[in-house]
Design a protein that fits this description.
alpha+beta; 6-stranded mixed β-sheet; 6 strands; globular
Length: about 130
Amino acid sequence: FPAVLRAEMRLLAEAAYPYEGCGVLVGTSEEVTEVRPGRNIRGPEDRARDRYVLDPRDILRAERDADLAGLEVVGFWHTHPDHPSRASRFDADHAWPGYLYVIVSVIAGKSVAEQGWVLESEDPPEFREEPLTQ
């Protein structure tokens, strides 16, 4: 996960604060090559501070664009405003196998950490930590 893309993701994460931001990761099985912003379709009245639902149209656009470039959607990112970058039970319950999930901790509007996660098992849903190598 190149440092320049991690920096881009942190800026997008900070821009979403105090709500959960989210987006799509594009690349290959070996490397993330693009961080795309997405829209959290949960509104402020619908727990947008601690929940997200990535707009399905953003996923479809990312899949289409990635396919045209010979790439694929390899994962998703979202923020945890004023909380650690640990995957929550909610995150595990809504994850899809085979994708990288990056969680960015944003404290008081500033990105402080990011961590990768991969769904290890579906029943019960459990994540394993995935290092974000540069």
